[in-house]
Structure formats: C-alpha cells, structure tokens
Amino acid sequence: MSLARYLPILTWGKDYTRETLSNDLIAAVIVTIMLIPQSLAYALLAGLPPEAGLYASIAPIILYTVFGTSRVLAVGPVAVVSLMTAAALSNIVEQGTMGYAVAALSLAALSGIMLLVMGLFRMGFVANFLSHPVISGFITASGIIIAASQLKHILGIDAHGHNLLDLVLSLFQHLPETNVITAVIGVFATAFLFWVRKGLKPLLQKLGVGATMTGVAVKAGPVFVVVATTLAVWLFGLGDQGVKIVGDVPQSLPPLTLPSFSPSLLGQLLLPAFLISLIGFVESISVAQTLAAKKRQRIDPDQELIGLGAANIGAAFTGGFPVTGGFSRSVVNFDAGAQTPAAGAFTAIGLAIAALALTPLIFFLPKATLAATIIVAVLSLVDFSILKRAWEYSLADFSAVLATIVLTLAMGVDVGVSAGVVLSVLLHLYKTSRPHIAEVGLIEGTEHFRNINRHEVQTDPRVVSLRVDESLYFANARFLEDFIQNRVAGDKNVRHVILQCSAVNDIDLSALESLEMINTRLEEMDVCLHLSEVKGPVMDRLRDQHFLKTLTGNVYLSQFDALNCIN
Amino acid sequence: MSLARYLPILTWGKDYTRETLSNDLIAAVIVTIMLIPQSLAYALLAGLPPEAGLYASIAPIILYTVFGTSRVLAVGPVAVVSLMTAAALSNIVEQGTMGYAVAALSLAALSGIMLLVMGLFRMGFVANFLSHPVISGFITASGIIIAASQLKHILGIDAHGHNLLDLVLSLFQHLPETNVITAVIGVFATAFLFWVRKGLKPLLQKLGVGATMTGVAVKAGPVFVVVATTLAVWLFGLGDQGVKIVGDVPQSLPPLTLPSFSPSLLGQLLLPAFLISLIGFVESISVAQTLAAKKRQRIDPDQELIGLGAANIGAAFTGGFPVTGGFSRSVVNFDAGAQTPAAGAFTAIGLAIAALALTPLIFFLPKATLAATIIVAVLSLVDFSILKRAWEYSLADFSAVLATIVLTLAMGVDVGVSAGVVLSVLLHLYKTSRPHIAEVGLIEGTEHFRNINRHEVQTDPRVVSLRVDESLYFANARFLEDFIQNRVAGDKNVRHVILQCSAVNDIDLSALESLEMINTRLEEMDVCLHLSEVKGPVMDRLRDQHFLKTLTGNVYLSQFDALNCIN
C-alpha cells in the first residue's frame, strides 16, 4: 500500500489490458509526431543544440510514467521553462559552449532534487504562494519575451537580452544584417502556422471535413512546415545563401551525462532552479488536475512533485535540460485516447527511434522554421485580459499582475516572478492587517445583529458591539487595540464592549496579548470587555489562558445572549 | 482642525493653566534627576561619549512635545535602541572615532526621516508585523547581550562583540587583565542596585515608611550610587589606580551638528535604521497607549510616528543618537503627575542646565557605576516566561520566539529581529494555506450544521457539505481544489457539493479562479456546486463575476435552505 503510494505504476500496471495497450499506442504515435519539431524548437529556445530537446523528452517521460499520478500528463521541454533556463544560464556561461550544456544539466539536477525533496516532505503547498494573477501575468510576459527572442532567427540575425528592452534594442541594432531568404522562410512559416490555427479549421469545416480529420490536419501544420521548408532549403541549396540550418545532429540514443556539481555554479543556480521548480510544478499540476477531473481520477500533488523531480533528474543524466508537464502535448495525448502513463513510455520509444534514425533528415531544417513554431505556440499564451479582470475585481490583484508583467518584461523572468510573489504576500498581509470591523446593533424583533451603518438597528449608548471580520493575529492585533481605544476613549457613556467573534478563525499569541491589553485598558476606563460567538477551536485554545480569568466581562454563546445578560 | 492634527500642542496648549504648570514642573524635576545617570549610561552603551546621552535627551524631548500625541511619554535614549545603535555602527566605523559619532547622527537622521515618512503616509501598520512573541524574544535576548556587554566595564577590561558568543569569548580572553578596584566598585554598585530594587522596598515598608517616600528612595538608588562611587574615586584617587572614569565632559548646551549623508554610509545604515525605527516605535507606542488608557486619552499612532521622527531628526542635528519613548522614564513622569507634554520640555531645560553646569561633577564618575545601572535596568527586561507561554499556546508562536531569541543571541540584533519577523509571516501564511475544512451535517430537529466528525448529524450520501474556516486566497486556493477533488473523485454517489462560506471573510481573484475551476471539474463529474451563507462584502464582489453565471448550482442564504432546496 505504502509502496504503491510512491510507485503509482503498481496501481494502474496490474489492470493493464490488451485494449488499454492499443489505445495507448495510438496516442503515442500521434504525440510523437507532434513532439519532434516541438522538442527541437524548445532546445533552440533554451540555447541548446536541437538534440537536447529530443533527449529531454525520452528519459524524463519514462521516469514520470513510473512515479507520476496523472494518467495522461506528457512531460518534456515546455516554452516558459525553456526561457527560464536560457535566462538563468546566459548570466553565468556563454551560450553555445560546452559549459553551457553542462550548466543546463546542473540546473535540471538541482531543480529535480528540489522537487523530490518538496515531494518527500509534502511541501507542495509552497507552490500555492504563486497566485493565479502572478502566474497569468508571468506567463503573458514570458510569452512576449519568448516571441521577441525568436525574431532573430526569423530574420537570420544576432540579438541578445533577457528582458524586452534589451532584446528590442539589440534587434534594431542588428536589423541591417537581415538575411532576406531567411526572413522570407521565417515570415512564410509564421504566417502559414497562424493561418493553420485561425483559417484552416473553418475552411475544412465548410468543406464538410469531419472533426477528427480537421483536428489532425491542424495539428499536422507544424510537421508540414518543417517538411516543406527543409525540402526547400535542400532543393535550392539555401544553406549556402546564409540561411541558418540545424545541421549535423548526432544519431544516437540519449547519452549518459554528468551534471557539474561545482559549488559556485550551484550557488548561482539556486534561485533560478527554485523558481523553475515552482513554475514548472504549478503548470504541470494544473494541467494534470484539469484532465484528471474529466475522468474522476485523483492527482496527488506531493507525488506529482516526486514524479517531476525524478523526470528532471533523469533529464540531468541523459543530456537534457529542465522539463515539466506540458499543456498542449498533454491535451493532445488525452484527446488521442491515452489511458495510462504507458502511452508516455511509448512516446519515449518513438522519440528514441527518431533520435537514432531520423536526425539526418533534419540537417537542412531552417532554424527560422523552428522559431516560427515557437512564436505561434507562445503567442497563444499571451493574454492581457487578466489585467482587465483583475482591475474589475480588486486593486490588490491588479497591482500584483501589473507588477509581475512590467517587471518580467523590464527586468527578466526571475525578478518578475519573485517580485510578484513578494508583492502578493505583502498585499494580502496589508489587507488582513486592517480588517473590517463593524459596529453592530440588534435588528428589532429578531436575534440578528447587523452593521449600524448599513441597517436600521437598536443600540444602547452604554454598550459597544463590534464584529471583527478577520482572524486576529499579530498583523492586526494592534489595529484592534487602537480601534477600541479610539472608539471608547471619547465616549463617556460606554460601560461595555462586546466583541462578536463569529468570523474569527484564529487568535494567535500576539492577538491574545492584545486582548489582555484591551481588557486592562478598558478596566482603567471602567468598561467591561465581553466576547460572544467564539468558535470551538478558538475557545479550546483560550480555555486555559490567563486572559479568561482576568476578563472583566463574560464569554457568551451568542451576541443576543450577551446583550440580554448585560441589560 | 487639520493643523491641530499635525501639531497636537495646539490642542493641549490652549487649556494650559497655572495648576497644570505646577504639576508639570514637579514631574520634570523628578524625571530630570533620574535621567542624568541614565542618559550617561545609555550613551556609554551606544559606544558614544557620555555627553551625547544628555544631548539626546534635550532637543528630541522638546520636538516630541510639539508633535507627539501622548501627554506623558518621555523621549530619549533607551537601552535596546542604544544597543542596536552600537551594533549597527561598530560594523562600519571604529568606536571612539569622530566618524563613529557622525555615523550615529546619520543613523538618527535616517531613522527620523523613515519615521516621519511612515507617519505622513499613515504607514504605522508596518510595525504590526513585529508580533508580540518576536518583540518579547528580541527584548529578552537584547537584555542579555546588553548585560554581557557591560561586564567589561564592571571588570575594567576590553572586550568586543555584538553577539553573545563573541562577547563571552572576548571576556574570557581578557579576564586576566581585570582591574581589581574597578571590579570591587562595579560589583558593589550592581549588588547595591539589585538590593535597592529587591530588598529596600520591603525593608522601608516594614519600617512604616509611606509608599511615596519608598518610591522616591527606590528611584534615587542610581543617583546615590553615582554620588557615592564618584566621591570614593575622588577621595581615594582611584583614577590613578586604573579605574576608568568618565573624565572631561564639555560644559555646553547641545552643539549644532551635521550628520553625514554619504551614500555609501546611508546604504549600510538603511536596514539598521529601519529596524531601529520599528522597534523604537513599537516600544514607544505601547507605553503611550498604556498610560493614555489610564486617563481615557487618545493616541494617534500615525502622529506618534511624526513625533518620534521629529525627535530623531532633532537628535541628529544636536549631537545625539537614535531615541524613542522610554518605558521607565515615562512611567516615572506619569507617576510624578505630569499632565501635558510641557513636563517633557521642562525636563529638557533641567538636562540643559545639567549639561551646562554639572558636568565637572561627574569627572570622577567610574564607568563601572554606569555599567552597573545599565545591567540592573536591563535585567528586568529579561523574561524567559514568554517561551513557556508560547509553548503552551501554539507551536507557531513558540517557534517564532525561540528563533528570535537564539538568532539574536547567536548572530546579533539585526539578524535576530529580521528572522523573527520573516518566520512569523511565513508561519502565518503556512497556517492559513492549510485551512480547517469541516464536512458538516444537520443536527436533527435544528437548522444547525456541525462537523460530522465531532457531532451526531444527519447526512445525505448525494450531498457533500463543506465549511471552510478561513478566507479564501491564493495560498489556500489550490488546497481547496485538491480537497474537493479528492473528496468527490472516489465517491460515485455524490451529486452536490455545498460550500458553507460563513467564515470566509474574503475571496481574492486566485480563489475565485479556483472556484471556477472547481465548478468546471465538478461539472465534468456531473456534480453541482452550491454556495451558502456568503457574507455581504464578499457577495458584493462576486455579484458581477462570470463565476456566478456559470455556477452549476445556486447561492443560498443559509446552509439549511441549501439542503432543503436540493432535496
């Protein structure tokens, strides 16, 4: 039982049938075809040689098959994590060097270890501090940076930078060096892929083509562009005209590689690895949960951390780079009918065959084509509507999104996402540090108490009834002290203060000491302090405390009882 | 009206009578006598020449008189802030140099500006993040470090260090150099002051001396020791025997001084100045609130920031160092009958006379005596009972206290208090990230719903009723998603999920998106999602949102209504 928790393969493996096998095999073939160009492209985005993309899709997916809890998640390189990889490594080592590839392995290893440790210690909750607005803002900004970073391949020029400003400046600087043929291929590929997404589907539907065939045609778009542009380069010898091509890719299974564990390198990679782990986990778990819900399956977030950790460690030792569960490929896998993680393992076999046998076929593949597939894929991530939505909902959420987008674009991915997290925590603390405190009165003829500013209620000048709509803890304890002191100090009639605690889910030690202080100060003013509607768990804690012994008033089950007893 | 907010002196000044004047004058005389040795001692603790202590008690107290809202707060050097000053400066400049005194001015200026800005922007809430346990732990640990740091003066040796370990090691190293006569004076003074605190009061009471006279005698203890040991050194020429004395102190009013605003210095002082501002403000405001409550007076925390800010800026330009409202002197001022801040201004005049005329009298005052007054004063701050109290109350509070004490002792004041704040924020977030979610059922014959694990309740296998005891926000949004998915995925009977929101004080955008996700996923499983008992302010926000339109179920006023409608 306990072993099955850590090895979910034992659960689904024992019910594996011939029918499941055939479903999984069909899904695997479809996903493999889709993954070949995608893997090459994301390797390019990460600043690595194209084969690294294939390698990063083989061992990781097999390890996830063994340790992961999602039946259909497809693990491998994804756009945002590849961008974060490039951003992290380019600050440390020069792109294109051997050291760069080794640092990518170290980053994957470090991220894998972090995920594994978080999983074993059940610390998945850490990822919860990435709020939805921060993630949305981050992904939108990342999509823009990724698209901008690929323009250099479309134009056949050099350009560098990990924030939008640097990138755009660098592009303008090198614009005169544009290779016209490359630009033609790049623009054609991009335009065609956009048309496939937006124009092909309605066209086929109008022509009466079935939904399944339409879906296959749309998904085959990237494969078609890859084949067409590769053929064009080969036939017309465009490689000699300055069109950058993929070139020699070793024909080999994933090699056994060793990440560098030099302390200075690991030190520099610590924060990026942590952020990559969190972002990767959040992206992966939300895809997994969404797909699992469609079949009433369970996802164990802590076990998912273990699965992703194993996948990344696998990537580190087989020539890959950081990976996670990808959205688009998982959806394709699901739609194609994958029933168990075995489909992933079959995909891995398909990619291994590709790595072994098909790499000569991509010798003439132009890098501009890969850039075009990336641009079209990531622009679907860009969605500014979150800004409008957050603006309409709350200022705090809006500030967090805006800061994340602006800082990610202006200062890069690490700064952007870190600032977003810190800001949302601070804003949350700020909100709870100034809780809503309503002075309440009795609605005539009922036992209900409502805000005196919103309703017609009965009040007694000798009694102040206050309802605090927040747990009491250190950040708002002193606020309550000030509030009560200000309310009572100027009003000589007051003899009783009743705190209605129906919305107080917790009272920490600071708040308890503040309550004692309030009690003492009210006593100095000849005012009694009472509590009402204290929740069970809160009362359990208060029961043995000195505070209840010195409380000048009483604790009442309901606010109505309190008022009755006092009068 | 608005001017009076920023200049509280306008409020109390216009009702000033002859009687108030005489009360204030009497209080001022008493406080002045008490403050002379204390000011000298805290200057020593801050690593500054003794006159700096007098200067720091003159301009600041006058400025607080104009801007502060407390009637009785006495502003000047205090133990913990003096220790923090020494800790901040010793890392940057060598003690005893001119640069050190100038850096102390810069620290006061920086801290004053920070306080002023926080006051003008009404940001006093920032100080709320110092939880009571963190402050208690910090003050206890600081008291120990201060006492240890004064042992070198008691023994007449050299010793350095800003954490306990360094201090103790340094003391042991220099122990052989102990000056026996200094040690005799130091030990005698310390023992006598302890006896005055613990033994004199009961003795006088037994002898039938009145309470007022007893109080005066106890408070005059330090003055007596100062006079006695100064006379001893003078009469027996102990200064020539190696007893370190205060020596020449300039006879002058506070000089006009200019803090250094060198960017590199200010950069290094930024964090210490911020921590000094926060700690100083917290200490000051809690004294002010406690004393104000005794007379039903109001304290405006934001205006207090302005008052303390002005006081520190005053200190910076008149040869002082960081100051704040002190506990013991304010209580003495209150007990002595001070009625308005004018008492503080009269105290300032008294100290100015002392600085001008009395400094030759302290030429022979041994530093060991000053150290003894510090040790006896700060040991009353040391109180480990907070550890026991926090242990009994909650693990989170206990961890915060323990970490603050251990880290302050081991790594110094800045690290200790920062770690305490960060840890208590993280623990609070952790707690709220895993909220208590109770599955509830109906208590037969009532309309009340209670936890099915705690009470005998009716349930319906088709309906899952969940009460979340926490506001829903980003840190717990995904937790709720997982919780509901796990509860429903395995249970094929479930057709309805009702979320009872009576304890949900807020729903942020992340939580709203999680609710949408939960709604969609439940829909995939053919389960309806309902809400009940949503609070007014929360409902106000939700009303226009897409979520309510797509909600598969309904929103009910009460959980009982919800159950009735569904059946």
Describe the protein in words.
The structure is a homodimer of 567-residue chains. Chain A has 567 residues and is mainly α. Helices cover 63% and strands 5% of the residues of chain A. Chain A is built from 25 helices and eight strands. In chain A, the strands form two sheets. The first copy, chain A, has a six-stranded mixed β-sheet with strand order 4-3-5-6-7-8. In chain A, helix 3 packs across helix 16, helix 3 crosses helix 17 and helix 5 packs antiparallel against helix 16. Chain A is elongated.
How is this fold's topology laid out?
Two copies of one chain form a homodimer.
Chain A: H1 2-6, H2 9-13, H3 18-45, H4 50-55, H5 59-67, E1 75-76, H6 79-90, H7 98-120, H8 132-155, H9 164-174, H10 180-206, H11 211-219, H12 221-236, H13 263-293, H14 301-316, E2 324-325, H15 327-335, H16 342-358, H17 367-379, H18 385-393, H19 395-411, H20 413-433, E3 437-442, E4 449-451, E5 463-468, H21 474-489, E6 496-500, H22 509-524, E7 528-532, H23 536-542, H24 546-550, E8 555-556, H25 559-566
Parallel strand pairs in A: 5-6, 6-7, 7-8
Antiparallel strand pairs in A: 1-2, 3-4, 3-5
Helix pairs in contact in A: 3-15, 3-16, 3-17, 5-14, 5-16, 6-13, 7-13, 7-14, 8-9, 8-17, 8-19, 8-20, 10-11, 10-12, 10-17, 13-15, 18-19, 19-20, 20-21, 21-22
